[in-house]
Amino acid sequence: MLRALTLAVLPTLVISRAEARLWESVAQTEARYGHALAKFLGDAPREEQRKYRYKDFYILVTFVDGRSEDEWYFHLDGKTALSEQDIQFFLTMTSDGKPWQKPSDGLVWTLGGSSIENWKAVAAYYPKLPGTTIPGFGIYTLTRAKKVLKIP
After folding, report:
1. Where are the beta strands (DSSP E) in 3-146?
2. For the purposes of burial, counting CB atoms within 10 Å of the CB of 103, is it exposed (0-12), middle (13-18) or buried (19 or more)?
3. How far apart are CA 117 and CA 71, in angstroms?
4. Are 138 and 148 in contact (CB under 8 A)?
5. Among positive and negative, which fits the CA dihedral 42, 34, 138, 55?
6. Which pLDDT score, from 0 to 100, does residue 107 have?
7. How many domains is the chain built from?
8. d(CA 69, CA 51)
9. What is the structure's pLDDT at 129?
10. What is the mean pLDDT of each run of 10 residues along the chain (152 residues)?
């Protein structure tokens, strides 16, 4: 009976953990990606960025007070555009089991509802990041998006 219960509950725990990326600690992030390839001071106090490698991607994570506030995904070569499949994979990874929404005429995806009061996270794809030729996909907590993207 205990074994059956364990087999029933374990996949739920794994799925839940696999879908929650933002808000995770440095230790949780490094348990998934391994040790950081590089560490950088952030733009503000209590802020740090760490670079990881995952499959064919570099991932740049900004931690504020030790928790992930934004995550950026780039192909290793810095040239290849992210496919719709790549974007959907990263959205699913950070969805916490909830659907991302993107209006047909919108430039960003939102997580948590149709109004800004309910949003928990925001994501955007840049075919060329400002000031570069590198395509990248970023996912922000709403708190971080308000600061960085100037969302009201």
Report:
1. 38-41, 47-54, 57-64, 67-75, 100-101, 108-111, 121-126, 136-141
2. exposed
3. 22
4. no
5. positive
6. 81
7. 1
8. 14
9. 86
10. 35 37 92 94 92 95 95 96 94 86 85 87 92 93 88 78
Beta-carbon count within 10 A of 136 CB: 21
The residue type at 122: V
Burial 5-37 (b: 16+ CB within 10 A, else e): eeeeeeeeeeeeeeebbbebebeebeeebeebe
Whole-angstrom distance, CA of residue 9 vs CA of residue 80: 39
Domain span at residue 142 reads 2-148
Q: Please give the Cα distance from 49 to 13 (Å, whole number).
A: 28
Both tokens assigned to 145: 């998006």
**pLDDT at residue 17, as a whole number:** 38
Place of tokens 């934004």: 70
Judge whether 6 and 13 are in contact, CB under 8 Å: no
Q: Which amino acid is at 32?
A: R
